Amino acid sequence: MRRTLYRLMIELTNGRFTSYILRKFAQSRLSSIIIPSYAKVFQINQDEMEKGLKEYRTLHELFTRKLK
Questions:
Q1: Which residues, 6+ apart, have CB-to-CB distance to 12 below 8 Å?
Q2: Interior angle at CA 26, CA 20 and CA 28, nearest 5
Q3: Does 68 map to a domain?
Q4: Does the residue 15 lie in any domain?
Q5: In a domain, 34, yes or no
Q6: Spatial separation of the C-alpha atoms in residues 27 and 30, rounded to whole Å
């Protein structure tokens, strides 16, 4: 269910308005709520991350993170 929702969010970026809304959400602190779930659903390798998962304040920070 969550995987479908996250994929739908990605597909919504095709439109100008929905892309704007999703970008604002990803850059907001509110997006930090879904970071653990997102990482679990998409099996993000946390061993490659420079910082711990809880240190990312926004989904945008997670997307643009530096790797080891």
A1: 18, 19, 22
A2: 100
A3: no
A4: yes
A5: yes
A6: 8
